[in-house]
Fold this protein.
Amino acid sequence: MMPYNIALLDDHQVVLESFANLLATSDRFRVIGIAFDQPSLLAILDQEPIDVLITDLLMPTINATELIPILKARYPTLSILVLSGSTDPLLVRQVMQAGANGYVTKTADKAELFDAILAVAAGRRHIDSRVFSVDETVLVPPASNPLTDRETQIARLIVDELSSMEIANRLFISFNTVETHRKRIYQKLGVTTALGLMKYLLKRGFMKK
């Protein structure tokens, strides 16, 4: 499988180099370039196709909510993952409404960060679970599916009787990450078994019968 081309944007060189070194530990990613501001980023994006841009939220000359619409208009296939220290749901909603594909906090560990990158690279939305633990109702309307895109995906695989290890292998995530999602899914929906999960999803139309 070809690695995903990654570009990094942050106004701190130490942060950029640290992330570049971290991504280099996986053969799923190839860091094409690192940028300190908008002009240097555009130079990278114009030079070679980029699958995922990982960007800081707030920078001296521009912030992500202003930059994302510009990038989406110019590079419609580019997936954008915002990295921030904030778990403020209102701020996250602004970022997602601006067109970001994902949002992950700077407290995420290596596995969580890699999961987020793979999710947005595959065209899925990803929002750090820490945001939902603060105030999930701000991001998810009460009448909608309370699960995130990734949780819904895993829930369907659970209903299909895949084990946690099989799900991990299929989605290229760790076993522990699957188990964490499983517990969170059950807690959110108030179920304790895969059968209860299936009944819940069918009753509310979140999966086909």
